Amino acid sequence: MKNNLPLLAVLGMLAIGCNESARQVADNTDASAATTAAADSALLQPALQSITAADILSRTTVLASDAFEGRAPGSIGEDSTVNYLTRQFKKMGLQPGNPDGTYVQNVPLVGFTAQPKASFEAGGKVIKLNFPTDYVALTKRFVPEIDINNSDMVFVGYGIVAPEYGWDDYKDVDVKGKTIVMLINDPAIPDPNNSSQLDSSMFGGKAMTYYGRWTYKYEIAAEKGAAAAVIIHETGPAGYPYEVISGSHSRENFDINMPNKNMDRAKVEAWITTEKAKELFSAAGKDFQQLKQAALQKDFKPIPLNAKANFSIQNKLREIQSKNVVAKLEGADPKLKDEYVVYSAHWDHLGKDPSLKGDQIYNGALDNATGTAGLLELAEAYTRLPQKPKRSILFLAVTGEEKGLLGSKYYATNPLYPLNKTLADINMDVLNAYGPTEDVTVIGYGNSTLEDVLAQEAKKQNRHIVPESSPENGGFYRSDHFEFAKQGVPALYAESGVVARNQPADYVQKWQENYTANDYHKLSDEVRDDWNLEGAVEDLKLFFRVGYRVANTPKYPQWKEGTEFKARREASLAAADSTKTAVK
Ligand SMILES: [Zn+2]
């Protein structure tokens, strides 16, 4: 549908309540007409102008304050956070997001604190392992203790079974009851025609596929019946330093409280440092670099290490109810208000560590008090629209992201509204505190048509979209939108780009490297005086525009050809169609 109504006509109709025309303008997907852009901007102005750096900062300051104790699920900090978010949503006049009339969705979790002991034996040598500096280990099984004695160790390369690439690291080798040792990420296979590049037909080339994620590796290890699964940490391929892992594993961890008590998981899920892996391999008469080379070959077969592993884990368990917080803006169109656009951000962070001297609180200011503040800003902005969008909007603050995307996983597997009526999830995790950028980074570039909408809307800000610079880090699998994607819902995860306006070329890169190295998941992730939140304001305005347009456009966003989520979505939409036919 085309519409080139002049601005004044549109504003006139709005004034006399001719909503249909306003909607037609929003429906117009041809962004070329300046009049359309102007009209649309005029409509959105009250909403867009309500998004400010001062608001983001004040909301972030509340969420990241010491009083919120680092927002750990199941802590006093959770109560404060849930109460704060609920109060804010109510104050804005948004409806409860749960059909039961509340602003929360209970998420039953199990908290477990593992006290592990471990050692390896190879070539007559005992390799001592100190927790958590050399290794971390936990059990996902809801049991008070786990013992593994003298378990045979096997190197399984990347530990991947990927039929679409004709890849099977396990071949016919039985690893039942054994301790498997594997590499992080997926194989970086050189292009046979150009050895300076990666083969783009294998495991997404430079980009990480889900096969590269540690979550996948533990899942397949369980399927294969391994007793213990040990991942070798390497900073480059993992995308983060070892301290990120040792920090998160030495505290209480959580999982969704599954009826089967996770007895189908491997007994032990562990990581070791590169140094300890090298020590193990050399004691077993192997060379780490050679093993890594072998693992890049399709004909790789598991390599027995002639080594034994011992694990003993004391596991302290407790059941808790954590909560997702959810608010709803009901759509204006009676025919479409049962369809949804979701904005998500995780409210949780790492909590506090009483064993530390001095500062004990992981305030998680950027991660993700800013994203949660952004969610509130977007929610408020939607309430300022003179005309609500056709479809409904959900504002979902999820718990347990830092514990493995648990709140979003729970929502996506126990949705409050049908996922085949959910058009998109737009996720925020860590907003920009380094100022406006000329570009917008899309994490998981090429995945869905949402990025085409993003590109068109970004143009209105004189910005353009770019792929993430390190797709090999698997960023797309590392925040809450992924749980929606896994269930087929198109998901957008975008953030400020890499070229800051009026700054040196490497300004953003340096800023981000500094954040990752010094503050990410550390005590020092606190609110800073030198933050510039104007880039975050621009991003939020952009996310507002994208969500608004999706909520008004007839066509559903789609996964692009070749994505691992497309088939899932099509099956889910087809199922919805057949129910419709059956009802008729
Ligand atoms: Zn985060």
Write up what this structure looks like.
This protein is of the alpha/beta class. The protein folds into three domains: 40 residues, no CATH class; 300 residues, Zn peptidases (Aminopeptidase, 3-Layer(aba) Sandwich), CATH 3.40.630.10; 208 residues, Glucose Oxidase, domain 1 (3-Layer(bba) Sandwich), CATH 3.50.30. It has 17 helices and 22 strands. It has a 16-stranded mixed beta sheet that branches. Helix 13 links the parallel strand 20 and strand 21. Helix 1 crosses helix 3. The N terminus is likely disordered. It binds zinc ion (ZN). The site of zinc ion has 6 residues, from helix 11.
Quickly describe the structure.
Helices cover 33% and strands 23% of the residues. The protein has helices at residues 7-15, 19-27, 34-49, 53-63, 76-92, 214-223, 235-238, 242-249, 274-283, 288-295, 365-383, 406-413, 450-459, 481-486, 507-518, 534-552, 566-583; strands at residues 95-96, 104-122, 125-128, 135-138, 145-155, 161-162, 167-168, 179-183, 190-191, 194-198, 228-232, 253-256, 268-272, 303-329, 340-346, 351-352, 361-362, 392-398, 422-428, 439-442, 464-467, 491-496.
Note the topology.
Layout lengths: L6 H9 L3 H9 L6 H16 L3 H11 L12 H17 L2 E2 L7 E19 L2 E4 L6 E4 L6 E11 L5 E2 L4 E2 L10 E5 L6 E2 L2 E5 L15 H10 L4 E5 L2 H4 L3 H8 L3 E4 L11 E5 L1 H10 L4 H8 L7 E27 L10 E7 L4 E2 L8 E2 L2 H19 L8 E7 L7 H8 L8 E7 L10 E4 L7 H10 L4 E4 L13 H6 L4 E6 L10 H12 L15 H19 L13 H18 L1
Parallel strand pairs: 5-8, 8-11, 11-13, 15-18, 15-19, 19-22, 20-21
Antiparallel strand pairs: 1-14, 2-3, 2-12, 2-14, 4-13, 5-14, 6-7, 9-10, 14-18, 16-17, 20-22
Helix pairs in contact: 1-2, 1-3, 3-11, 4-11, 5-11, 11-16, 13-16
The structure holds zinc ion (ZN).
